[in-house]
Amino acid sequence: MRKIRVLHCLETIASGGVEQTLLTLIKGLDKNRFDHKIICTWQGGPVAEALNSEEVEVIAIGSFKSPFEFRKLRKVVQIVKKYKPDIIHGAVFEGMTMATVGGFFGKDPVIILEETSDPQNRSGKANWLLRQYAKFADAFQAISHDVGEYLKNVTKIDLNLVYVIPNGLPMPSFVSEEVLRKTRFSLSLAPDDVIIGFVGRLYDDHKRVSDLIDAIYLLNIPNVKLLIVGEGKDREVLEKQVENLNLEKTVVFLGYHSKPDLFYQLMDIFCIPSSREGFGLVAVEAMLHKLPVIATAVGGLKDIVIDGKTGYLVKPKSHKDLADKIDELVQDSHLRVTFGEAGYVRAKEKFTADRYCLEVENLYITLLKKKGFLH
Hints:
With 375 residues, this protein is an alpha/beta fold. 45% of the residues lie in helices and 18% in strands.
């Protein structure tokens, strides 16, 4: 029996949640049943290396300066005609463009368009363009209920096309107590320090780490430390903010780590203060490490965190609200454990890689049967 060919189209393959979720999917689907190929604009880093180790061909065609760069789209069509995919799965706006154009000129494959962001600032023109793409799509996949509502109510995508499939993660790995002890020592973390943590890209318009730093300054609790795991264009600005607030001994910038499990194990409280978030994989990662999560009530984070049970949801761009909730958990170690245990149970039930891969596979098979490709 011939394998089901799936062509994935997306923007860059770097270290973001979209490409990490794609890696999770490719690892989780039966290799005897599915064959995968990827078209992207650029690739590099550990996710790209992991995809190569899975023996998945990744073809980088260069970045798009506009939605319709015909020379690059011609490459996409050529790849589609040669590969002859049964399914084209496009994520991120550039990926959805490639999937739509490639599918239109391909041999009538199943076309799935995946909305992976919380597109609050998307223009009316872009929403109109997505509605045109939807005319050629067999399904619109949304990574959270909030994103699904956006597709239905703002973009006006046909309700019958929208499938909400939240992202999922594999179970984390854990390091030994000896490694933890040595790391705490190297970071000058005292035994009675309460460690607040953040993991993510340092793009402050989106991730709002500056609000978290302001919250730590407002708290002014000597034994509270903040670990920031991640890299990005605003790191220098954030470091300057820390310097201006005289928080150099309180805030530690750790840079990018492809496997941040060690740092999750050092944390007592996890914070994700985003202004927008399609899903929020790091919140699930933190919950799988039994951490209470304080998150802004935006996008997919509202699906992940149960306010008052697994952590707290706060208003975005409010360092005062963030500080108040951090203070509650700093002062109550029992509540931290209670929230962390409840979050772990929820993450294992709702947001595992197995659950995610099964739901995507079911969508693939359902659409292939609907088009008569499978019986």
